[in-house]
Write a structure and sequence with these properties.
4 helices; signal; 9% helix; 16-stranded antiparallel beta sheet; 371 residues; mainly beta
């Protein structure tokens, strides 16, 4: 059975988003000050989900970006696929059985866009939007197992928006605050209940810009990266050691080594921790210990060891190719109606290789040269 991705947007909306992204990128670029030694690509944010920064003169206002980082991304199209792998589940309460099968498909489609709302040297506001869709297919359909049959070919969606506040304090200090709201689950437009599917995350980082090639900061993140909703510390470390080598990290969520082969070609290697949280409405209610469940909370956490290549195609258009190995930490279902969030199904996705392809839009080089 083949599955088609259908995005709830019209051609006019797509053209509008593309125009706003290009306009926003141009606005950001024109409002910046050229460094003493011009460098292209311009420094980009450590993580587009967390920050979307341009470059400012380090002599005047500090930012987390450092010389040598890749180009700022305004509009991103990302597709990821994992080949066939084994899945095992163990029931944790009376009435639920164990099961073992193969997942024949696990794919993700991600579209993100970032638009600057305010671009002053001492204050920047960045608006971000994202749409994500994850799909599973299992062998021997229907499997007869409650969890798998309820996510089979359903489309686990995430629709979100975020606001990032970037505040350069002076030539050394900076801080970032970000808040993000997402609707995550198997909802459709006809049955969407915001209170059921809403997930909110946030973060705060305070840092020091020691030089144009070294910036670091500390803070806290509050979200679902490690499964359940919880706070965890964050350490940002961006450093360029020479014209080729650098490191970009937001520990413990991600650490990446960077190699600048040329201004138009960059290589990366490292790891990242990805956490997803979905609300799944059951087609058939689940019976456990005399109780009836109509929905589940599905927590998915994985660690990816990855290598990536980013390359300019033409001026404002780049592509990224990524591959690596996915280690699944958790794929568990919880009773969301219980205050204690009791785990009712403990699942394990077998570790497997993965690959992804990405296209993204950056500030046009010709525009940057006019600064």
């Amino acid at each position: 059975m083949k599955t088609r991705y259908v995005l709830p947007v019209s051609p006019f909306a797509c053209r509008a988003l593309l125009t706003l992204s290009l306009s926003g990128l141009a606005f950001t670029a024109l409002g910046q000050v050229t460094p003493t030694t011009p460098v292209y690509p311009l420094p980009a944010p450590t993580n587009p989900d967390s920050v979307a920064l341009g470059t400012t003169d380090p002599q005047q206002f500090a930012t987390p970006s450092v010389v040598g980082m890749g180009p700022s991304k305004g509009l991103i199209f990302h597709y990821e696929r994992v080949p066939r792998f084994n899945v095992t589940s163990a029931g944790q309460t009376v009435g639920l059985r164990d099961y073992n099968t193969d997942a024949t498909k696990n794919a993700r489609l991600v579209i993100k866009g970032y638009i600057p709302m305010l671009n002053h040297p001492h204050l920047k506001l960045i608006l971000g939007v994202n749409y994500e869709r994850e799909e599973f297919q299992f062998s021997n359909r229907p499997t007869g197992y409650e969890l798998y049959d309820n996510i089979e070919n359903k489309g686990l969606k995430t629709l979100g928006t975020q606001l990032a506040v970037i505040r350069p304090v002076n030539a050394v200090n900076w801080y970032i605050f970000r808040v993000k709201g997402e609707l995550s689950g198997d909802y459709t437009s006809s049955e969407l209940n915001v209170t059921d599917y809403l997930r909110v995350s946030s973060e705060f980082l305070y840092g020091w810009k020691r030089s144009p090639t070294f910036s670091w900061g500390v803070g806290v993140q509050l979200g679902y990266t490690f499964g359940r909703f919880s706070p965890y510390p964050a350490l940002l470390y961006n450093r360029t050691f020479n014209k080729h080598w650098g490191i970009e990290a937001l520990f413990p969520a991600r650490v990446t080594a960077r190699y600048n082969a040329s201004p138009r070609s960059l290589f990366f290697a490292g790891y990242s921790v990805d956490g997803l949280n979905y609300i799944v409405k059951l087609r058939t209610p689940l019976q456990r210990e005399g109780a009836t469940l109509n929905s589940l909370e599905l927590r998915e956490t994985e660690v990816k060891f990855r290598a990536r290549w980013e390359r300019e195609i033409y001026d404002f258009l780049w592509f990224g190719v990524e591959g690596g190995y996915r280690y699944n930490y958790a794929f568990d279902a919880f009773d969301r109606t219980n205050d204690n969030r009791i785990k009712i199904i403990d699942s394990k996705l077998a570790n497997a290789p993965y690959a992804s392809l990405e296209l993204f839009i950056v500030p046009p080089r010709k525009l940057l040269k006019r600064q």
